[in-house]
Amino acid sequence: MKSLVLAEKPSVAREIARVLQCNIKNKGFMEGPKYVVTWALGHLVTLAEPEDYDRKYKEWRMEDLPMLPDQLKLKVIRQTSQQYQVVTRLMKRADIGELVIATDAGREGELVARWIMKLGDWHKPFKRLWISSQTVAAILEGFAKGLAAGPYAEAARKLLASPLKPTKRLVDDSKVSDHHAIIPTEQPLKLAELTSDEKSLYDLIARRFLAVLSPPYRYDQLTVIAGIQGEKFYARGKVLKDPGWRAVTSHQSDQEENQEDALPEQTLANLNQGEARTVKNLKPQKGKTKPPARYTEATLLTAMENPGKFIEDEELRETMKGSGLGTPATRAEIIEKLLHTSYIERSGKELVPTSKGRQLINLVAPELRSPELTAQWEQALTDIARGKGSKTAFIQGIREQTVHLVKSIAQDNSVYRADNISRTKCPVCGKYMLLVNGKRGKMLVCQDRSCGHRQPEKERDFNFGSSKKASQMNQKLIARYSDHQNIGSNMGDLLKEAMAKQKEEK
Ligand SMILES: [Zn+2]
User: Fold this and answer.
1) What digits encode the pLDDT tens for the residues 372-410?
2) Phi then psi dihedrals of residue 174, to 5 deg
3) What is the 3-state secondary structure (H, E, C) of 407-456?
4) Which of 113, 177, 222, 449 is 20 to 30 A from 465, comparing alpha carbons?
């Protein structure tokens, strides 16, 4: 009997197949004497849409909300149905005796496999692939050896002088989940084959990796209280003992971490208590306190990663550690969506809420505004994972909360008022358009989102003679002025795109 190994990404499947000697390549899977390895790219199975339960749910009417079917149905995702067929055909093979779940080792990855098993009617035994923690040190050493060439040789050799001891800070088995860090692989480095962008990016990743494995940066924290004619003056700074990881990443600055502090950080010479010094000069400096800076895309992403600090309840704050709003893969998309739906807009590098966004926050139920709800759910899910909480009770709670929220929204009679309606009618559907700040100046956007027409404000007198012409123009303008051309693409795709462009230009 053979075992069927289900990975998430084809690249992971190929790696597993190589190790398990599955050398026969087929469409959608690899086969060897003992194992068959396949993948679930695109997740293959998803929850059914409202209209799959009842045709009447195709349109959302207030009296049908909330839609809460007793049993949630699953369905095959159309775009990846071919791979789903491959997987289920393998599941039905008589010579396949067990399944090894090798999807990403987190909640989502596990669910991907469980849904496929449910819809594919899998009843034979199954196991979960969990990479052994004993090999972590060996793997890290392998990576460090891979780096022992070129500009990283010195730092890597220093590291390899003593055996690497992965600390809990570096690898924490209790928290290993699906989205792990970006690290260099064991592949030897061919610097000459990289473009300058690739080199810079590789350098960043390699240095950070070496830094993480390096000894701590050691310093004495020094606070100087100087008395000058009865007045006390304070200074704070560091006296360097051992540069540690800082020797590898010289670019990292303290300033970011200490922005909020009243006293600037500085390197001080070693001073002794009671020492007398001569004051050479004194310079008074005027200053004002500043309100917190507005979010930029970068600082917002960081805040989404660690929403815990916005939670007052200490216990809840603790549970939010390590879990953010969204996942690394979806956070940037969430911001793009808020921009595209005009809840926020760009002002230079800053992100500013629009009137629409501010009104939404006032209209929405208070519990949906705070990361506390996410924290409570995280806590409940963690409890369930550890066998301390009840799945049924959690789902029941979600159902009750949904009913309660929808009811309170239905009873609320506050209204949304668009205060940016322009006097220009949409050339496509005739409704008045809204004035919004786009990436390249003021834009007129049709208030009907299903119409979606948008045009620059300055071209409001544009001659849209026929609706056909208007629609063609519309397509062009959407392409030209859209904030949104890259919705759904991740950092990796953007990077690839940028590199491809650079190659073209050469
Ligand atoms: Zn329109």
Assistant:
1) 888 888 888 888 888 888 999 999 999 999 999 888 888
2) -70, -15
3) HHHHHCCCCCCCCCEEEEECCCCCCEEEEEEECCEEEEEECCCCCCCEEE
4) 449
Q: How far does the centroid of ligand 1 lie from the alpha carbon of residue 426, in Å?
A: 5
Express each pLDDT in 98-142 by its tens digit: 999 988 877 888 999 999 999 999 999 998 887 644 455 665 666
- 84-93, 291-300, 319-328: least confidently modelled range: 319-328
User: Ligand 1 mean position to 448 CA, how many Å?
Assistant: 6
Contact criterion met (CB below 8 Å) for 431 and 447: yes
472 CA distance to ligand 1 centroid (A)? Answer: 14
The structure tokens listed for 506 are: 């050469």
Q: Using an 8 Å Cβ cutoff, are 130 and 110 in contact?
A: no
Q: How far does the centroid of ligand 1 lie from the alpha carbon of residue 267, in Å? A: 61
Cβ proximity of 350 and 295 under 8 Å: yes
Cα of 118 vs centre of ligand 1, distance in Å, is 44
Give the C-alpha separation, 79 to 438, whole Å: 32
pTM comes to 0.61
Domains of the chain (ranges, CATH numbers): 2-130 (3.40.50.140), 134-213 (no CATH), 297-411 (1.10.460.10), 421-481 (no CATH)
Ligand 1 centroid, distance to 466 Cα (angstroms): 14
The candidate with the shortest Cα–Cα distance to 470, out of 456, 453, 485, 487, is: 453
112/7 Cα distance (integer angstroms): 10
Residue 151 token pair: 């500009």
How many angstroms is it from 169 CA to the middle of ligand 1? 54
Report yes or no: 361 and 370 within 8 Å, Cβ to Cβ.
no
- Taking the C-alpha atoms of residue 60 and residue 67, their distance in angstroms, rounded to an integer, is 9
Distance between Cα 82 and ligand 1 center (Å): 38
Q: Which amino acid is at 180?
A: H
Taking the C-alpha atoms of residue 110 and residue 91, their distance in angstroms, rounded to an integer, is 17
How far CA 453 is from CA of 429, 441, 442, 447, 468, in Å, comes to 9, 16, 14, 9, 13
